[in-house]
Specification:
One of its GO terms (cellular component) is plasma membrane. This protein is of the alpha/beta class and 958 residues long. 10% of the residues lie in helices and 23% in strands. The chain has a 35-stranded mixed sheet that branches. An eight-stranded parallel sheet has the order 38-40-42-44-46-48-52-54, with no helix packed on it. Strand 49 and strand 50 (778-780) form a beta hairpin. The radius of gyration is 36 Å and the shape is globular. The structure holds 2-acetamido-2-deoxy-beta-D-glucopyranose (4 copies). The site of one 2-acetamido-2-deoxy-beta-D-glucopyranose has 5 residues, from loops. One 2-acetamido-2-deoxy-beta-D-glucopyranose (NAG) binds at residues 372, 396-397.
């Protein structure tokens, strides 16, 4: 899980890591050492004018006075001529825009230059080296005249907040070896080019760094220009908004290009062949660049100099045989490869055996691809390997115990594959440097971790993550000797019994503890302190006793345990950091203390399925951050206060179903601006359903008021909600007719804009709602968005079913049973091609069953019983799967599966007048049409793609 989370924040970090890394590989020598010669008078005057143009609040250039200008800070002269050859004023501080004007609490003034660059620089005709990096020139342009500084060999204006267009005059600097115009990614300034033709003038350039410069206007030709720089050693075009990765057919003239970085662009294409034809490459990085497709064919021994290959965070496909080929056949019988990082791509196939011949390999990161097959046995001969990450793939087989010989290994990540067999002490024999290990298999029972009880491992772990791997029944004793543990994940490992005391003793160093899904029993220590902002998940065990007060914890789950007693009224004094609390399905009793609302950081609170009582929200204070609140299935009473939305201004998900909540619902209750899921089902609310108003009307996507005592009519505003896709008003006393405006419910016309739990909660628990979508109540988790349903059953609605309901093209469930509806079944019902459940039973519906309904091949659950339907049952397709209970109680119906056949049934022949024949012809045409459409789209494929997905979690009513 951790590694998945990390990916979303990676890009900016990557940027920093990479650019700072690049900082240390300057191939040009720095300024020549200082001397005691007197400086040239003209150049001394020029330096003073240059200084005058600068703003220097810290007095950094205070040494710039007196005659010996060669001794001034940052100035270097040539011996014996006294010409100024170098100005190096790179700030050692953070001078970026966001530190400027930031906290100015201290009197300390950082050494940061701003102001302007004086033309006086032109008077230093021997200046070879100019470095003004890390200052803040507040968006001034790179001056045009720099192009006339003919002697310049080294120009570094990186991280200095220059802005605007880069002048093409830079192309006149024919002696330039080093050019760095890197833009600070956090700066509000930006640098652009209108084209890159000027690059061709820089024929001596060794190092080109345009990190963060917007090259989008040069995107079509950028490589043509770059390809002419045949002396390049280093090229970094990280984050340059390049959108083309061109093919290039002419032979490339690079002979010394060793380092290339094209990361963080948006190529949306495959890697062109030429990239792997640069035989001099030592380091190649193209991460997070929207690369797609297979790798190009790579010639044998073409990557023999390559030490680092980073292609992580793309969508590359195919196998990695080509890379293995390019790395093989090298002289000295080994490639130089040290780092191979293909994390987060779509590479597939088995890992090629030759991977094991890369004897310099230190880092092998292949996680989050779809590699399959076993770990190649050759891998265990990579004696320099420090990081092996194969997690989140589809690999299988046993884990070779030769891994235990990889004595340099610090990180071994084998999480989330389909491993099987046993992992034993042998697997760790020589891993003295191991600090992190993760291991899990696809399902419990395939993989076991078996070590002797008194095993003393040779390593000292900081992090262990085991899941779906049998380690129990005893709690692993050997962990006791691991003194630096901060992450302990042993979920679904068949551990039972009590948690040993030593684990609680190290709680202050724990950042993550996950023992969920075991059979751990016993009481918990009432007081502990965990590491600050730690995450503790003990869900689905057999833990007992009162709710403990563990400080430092940020995320806490005791879901599915046996905790009892009252929720402590002092919790907020001990758990002020708590953001996530899940105590659902325990045995908490007593009044829910109003002081729980003093847990001001709470964003997620689930206390459903306990026996909590008391008046709901009585005396609660505002909980500004609460987004998700589930108190369903308790014994809470009283009415919902009108100020609920001001108590929870951030509320998105509210579930209070199955309590004893009574009273009327005030319209103020419905004005939470972000509330998208509201489940108040199975309470004792009464009175009319209040008028819905904006903005909540547009936010609401799931509304469940089932099984209360609501009266009055269907609230027509609901027809105009933009997102409502689950509407359950069943089992109330609603009367009147179903308004024709239901035809306008846009939420029922697509799957799509639906509520999802905020990202930060998704790894923990997915909010669920219970719905009567089939014959029974089902619990829906992440599939809620695929359920579009209207349930108005068990009310006293009358009138006809509005014909417009057939325009709700994505409706999956329509239940109108047990009302007083009359009229006919809408003739265009087959337009509802996704309807899975239709229940019209126990109404007064008359007329015939439209024969076209037999084309509704998705319709799995149908109930038409106890109405006044008549005529023949269209015994075709899906209808042949229905049994007689679907049709019973309609005395006028005939034919299979009922016993009364149509020919013997009185009045059946009477249908054969002209009007009826016309109707039947129309129906037959519809059958043809709909049958064609439904078979054309593949009945079974379609059926399983929707219904198969909808296989929801076991119904709690079972
Ligand atoms: C350069 O000259 C200054 C002034 O004489 C002196 O303080 C400094 O140590 C010298 N630096 C080197 C590297 O010789
Ligand atoms: C490589 O050099 C040759 C000869 O100088 C030149 O004709 C060719 O265009 C160069 N290739 C590239 C890609 O610039
Ligand atoms: C891969 O492609 C999908 C679909 O186009 C896109 O959503 C995703 O962001 C891409 N992933 C990467 C790492 O580029
Ligand atoms: C691994 O999976 C492949 C299919 O991907 C299968 O053919 C092979 O038998 C599996 N091997 C083991 C050891 O389960």
């Amino acid at each position: 899980m951790g590694s998945r989370k990390a990916t979303s924040v990676l890009s900016p970090l990557l940027f920093l890591a990479l650019t700072f890394y690049a900082e240390s590989t300057d191939p040009t020598p720095g300024p020549i050492s200082n001397s005691t010669i007197a400086c040239n008078a003209k150049e001394r005057a020029a330096l003073l004018r240059f200084k005058d143009g600068l703003i220097d609040p810290s007095g950094w250039l205070s040494s710039w006075r007196g005659p010996t200008c060669c001794h001034w800070t940052g100035v270097t002269c040539d011996e014996p001529s006294g010409h100024v050859t170098a100005i190096e004023l790179t700030s050692p501080e953070f001078c970026t825009d966001y530190t400027f004007g930031g906290d100015s609490s201290e009197s300390y003034t950082p050494r940061c230059l701003s102001g302007e660059l004086s033309k006086a620089l032109l008077d230093m005709e021997h200046l070879q080296y100019l470095d003004l990096s890390n200052n803040n020139f507040q968006g001034i342009a790179v001056p045009e005249f720099i192009g006339s500084m003919k002697s310049l060999r080294h120009l570094n204006l990186s991280y200095a907040s220059f802005g605007g267009f880069i002048p093409a005059s830079l192309g006149k600097l024919s002696s330039l070896r080093y050019l760095d115009l890197t833009v600070d990614p956090y700066s509000i300034r930006g640098l652009w080019v209108s084209d890159l033709h000027w690059l061709s003038g820089l024929s001596s350039l060794n190092s080109l760094r345009l990190v963060g410069v917007n090259l989008s206007r040069a995107s079509d030709h950028w490589f043509d220009e770059v390809a002419q720089l045949s002396s390049l050693v280093e090229l970094s075009l990280f984050g340059c908004e390049l959108s083309k990765f061109p093919n290039h057919s002419q032979p490339l003239n690079f002979t010394s290009l060793t380092s290339v970085d094209f990361s963080s662009n948006n190529f949306h294409s495959s890697i062109p062949k030429w990239v792997f034809e640069i035989g001099s490459l030592v380091e190649l990085q193209i991460m997070d660049a929207n690369l797609v497709g297979d790798l190009p064919a790579i010639q044998e021994a073409s990557l023999c100099n390559l030490r680092k290959l980073h292609l992580a965070f793309n969508n590359l496909t195919g196998n990695i045989q080509g890379i293995a080929t390019g790395l093989s056949g090298c002289r000295n019988s080994s490639s130089a490869l040290e780092v191979l990082d293909l994390t987060v791509n779509k590479f597939s196939g088995a890992l090629p055996d030759p991977l094991g011949f890369l004897r310099y390999l230190r880092v092998l990161q292949l996680s989050e691809n779809t590699f399959s097959g076993p770990i190649p046995s050759s891998l265990v001969s990579l004696s320099r390997l420090e990081v092996l990450d194969l997690s989140f793939n589809e690999m299988n087989g046993t884990i070779p115990n030769g891994i235990g010989r990889l004595s340099e290994l610090t990180t071994l990540n084998l999480f989330s594959n389909s491993w099987e067999g046993n992992v034993s002490e042998d697997h760790f024999h020589n891993l003295t440097k191991l600090t992190g290990i993760s291991l899990s298999s696809a399902k419990l029972g395939l993989l076991a971790f078996r070590v002797s009880r008194n095993w003393m491992p040779v390593f000292d772990l900081e992090s262990i993550r085991f899941s779906n791997c049998i380690m129990g029944p005893r709690f692993p004793e050997w962990l006791k000797h691991q003194k630096n543990l901060s992450t302990i994940v042993l979920s679904r490992t068949e551990i039972s019994g009590r948690i040993p005391n030593w684990l609680w003793i190290i709680s202050p160093q724990i950042e993550q503890l996950d023992l969920s899904g075991n059979r751990i029993a016993g009481d918990l220590p009432p007081r502990l302190s965990f590491g600050y902002f730690s995450r503790v998940n003990l869900a689905s065990n057999r833990l007992e006793g009162p709710f403990p007060l563990w400080s430092g914890v940020n995320e806490l789950s005791f879901r599915n345990n046996l905790l009892s007693g009252e929720f402590p009224a002092v919790a907020h004094l001990h758990l002020p950091e708590l953001k996530y609390l899940d105590v659902a399905n325990n045995s908490l009793t007593g009044k829910l203390p109003s002081s729980i609302s003093k847990l001001k950081s709470l964003a997620y609170l689930d206390m459903s399925q306990n026996s909590l009582s008391g008046k709901v929200f009585s005396n609660w204070t505002e909980m500004p951050n609460l987004k998700i609140l589930d108190l369903s299935r308790n014994n809470l009473s009283s009415s919902i206060p009108g100020k609920m939305c001001s108590l929870f201004p951030s509320l998105e998900w509210l579930k209070l179903s199955m309590n004893g909540i009574s009273g009327r619902l005030s319209s103020a209750t419905l004005r939470c601006p972000r509330l998208s899921t509201l489940d108040l089902g199975e309470n004792r609310l009464h009175g009319p359903i209040p008028k819905w108003t904006l903005p909540n009307l547009d936010a609401i996507s799931e509304l469940i008021l089932r099984a209360n005592n609501f009266t009055g009519g269907f609230s027509e505003e609901l027809c105009h909600s933009k997102n409502l896709h689950v509407l359950d008003l069943s089992d109330n006393h609603l009367s009147g007719s179903i308004p024709g405006c239901v035809a306008d419910m846009v939420g029922m016309k697509s799957y799509g804009h639906y509520y999802q739990l905020p990202l930060e909660f998704r790894s923990f628990y997915k909010g669920s709602i219970e719905l009567n979508t089939k014959q029974q109540q089902m619990q829906y988790l992440d599939l809620i968005p695929l359920v579009n349903m209207i349930d108005l059953s068990r009310n006293t609605l009358s009138g006809e079913i509005p014909e417009g309901i057939t325009r709700l093209s994505f409706l999956g469930v329509l239940r109108l049973s047990e009302n007083r509806l009359s009229g006919n079944i809408p003739r265009d019902l087959p337009l509802l091609t996704r309807l899975e459940t239709l229940d019209l039973s126990m109404n007064r519906i008359s007329g015939t069953i439209p024969a076209s309904m037999s084309s509704m091949t998705f319709l799995v659950h149908l109930n038409l019983s106890y109405n006044n339907l008549s005529g023949p049952i269209p015994w075709l397709n899906q209808f042949r799967t229905y049994n007689m209970t679907v049709f019973e109680g309609n005395p006028g119906l005939c034919g299979l599966p009922l016993r009364n056949s149509c020919s013997t049934h009185g009045g059946q022949e009477g249908l054969d007048d002209d009007g009826a024949r016309e109707n039947r012809d129309k129906d037959d045409r519809l059958i043809d049409l709909w049958f064609y459409i439904s078979t054309g789209s593949g009945f079974f494929a379609g059926f399983w793609s929707v219904c198969g997905l909808l296989v929801a979690r076991r119904s709690w009513t079972e």
